[in-house]
Design a protein that fits this description.
This is Serine-threonine protein phosphatase, putative. The protein has 344 residues and is an alpha/beta fold. The protein has helices at residues 38-47, 94-108, 119-125, 135-141, 144-151, 156-164, 190-203, 209-212, 222-225, 228-242; strands at residues 5-8, 10-14, 27-31, 51-52, 79-83, 113-116, 165-166, 168-171, 174-177, 246-249, 260-262, 267-269, 289-294, 300-306, 318-323. The chain contains ten helices and 15 strands.
Length: 344
């Protein structure tokens, strides 16, 4: 058995999630919108049994330094990690969040660590994220000019986004996207959508409906906020067209800090306002990870949410969202806030 160790600014022990293209996945762990909260990103990955730290921070800014003699944890074979976008803005440590996920990617590879574009990635590429950018975030980059350069062609974040991020990720019967794919886009394959988004980043052609319209995969809230009549028929249309079973989305924070399932288990709503800087949501700041246990590439055994020991969601540390025998736990629109500009 092999072990892996990576450094992500603080010294971390990583539970390796090694998988190969010839070995089917056993589970998928997804983390939704992070918004500059490196600590909760780390904790969410630990709650999903992806990453291990030995010494937690006593206060914000304290680094996690496991002793050099600590043994690495066993390989977690057959795991894929998916981050659903919006690593940046609101919180102070967006740059470190990108570097953490990049280090995981370098250590484990494209089959094991997948990153999906969020609307805040596009806002920053366009230089339009001003009201969401904190002074601490600017200082972390080394000042306003250094921050702009990082998001500009040739810069650190621009390079990561153009080379390694997907607009839509699919594994077997499961699709992952920041906001949601609507029926109007079914004239294009998933590969075409991803290639178009990548070209737009590379060419600076970001002012395109694919990335900026209300029905864009980055901006749509229909599957989270629509009524059953508004959300489920178009969702089923899209899923049938692409031959997949379900869609996992972020982008729209839940009011109660809990993940939700809709449309007969076809839509998984994973955004719980994870960041401690999402203060307008009363149950914000829980480092939640979604875990999908697979029977095979197209069928699930169960879907669980892991919140950690200290949360006020009423769900406990672990919440069973769906199983292939117990059916659906339904959600209604009233459990989500109305969309407005502060919710971007």
């Amino acid at each position: 058995m092999t072990f892996h160790r990576i450094a992500v600014v603080a010294a971390l022990l990583v539970v390796s999630v090694a998988t190969s293209s010839s070995r089917p996945l056993k589970r998928i762990v997804a983390v939704a919108d992070v918004h500059g909260d490196r600590r909760n990103l780390m904790q969410a990955l630990e709650n999903g049994r992806v990453l291990v730290h030995k010494h937690g921070p006593e206060q914000e800014g304290v680094e996690w330094h496991p002793e050099a003699s600590d043994p690495a944890e066993p390989v977690m074979e057959g795991t894929q990690v998916v981050q659903l976008g919006d690593l940046v803005d609101r919180g102070p440590l967006g740059l470190q969040c990108y570097r953490l996920m990049q280090d995981l990617y370098v250590a484990e590879g494209a089959n094991e660590v997948v990153r999906v574009l969020g609307n805040h990635e596009v806002l920053n590429l366009l230089g339009m994220a001003g009201r969401y950018v904190t002074d601490e975030d600017v200082a972390e980059f080394g000042g306003e000019e250094a921050r702009r350069e990082s998001w500009s062609p040739g810069g650190e974040i621009w390079t990561i986004l153009k080379d390694h991020y997907e607009l839509v990720h699919v594994y077997g019967g499961h699709r992952f996207v920041h906001g949601g794919v609507m029926p109007a886009l079914t004239d294009r394959s998933i590969d075409e959508l991803n290639e178009q988004a990548s070209r737009m980043i590379k060419n600076g052609a970001l002012k395109n409906p694919l990335l900026l319209s209300e029905s864009s995969p980055l901006w749509s809230r229909v599957y989270a906020l629509g009524t059953d009549e508004e959300a489920c028929p178009p969702l089923l249309n899209v899923l049938r067209h692409y031959g997949v079973a379900r869609m996992v989305v972020g982008h729209t924070p839940s009011e109660d800090g809990r993940m939700k399932v809709r449309c007969g288990g076809r839509a998984i709503l994973a955004d719980v306002a994870l960041s401690r800087w999402m203060g307008r949501y009363p149950h914000h700041g829980h480092p939640a990870a979604l875990e999908m246990t697979l029977v095979n590439a197209t069928h699930l055994e169960k879907i669980e949410a892991h919140y950690g020991p200290e949360n006020d969601t009423g769900a406990g540390q672990h919440q069973l969202l769906w199983t292939n025998t117990d059916g659906l736990i339904e959600v209604g629109k009233d459990e989500f806030a109305d969309s407005d500009e502060d919710e971007l």
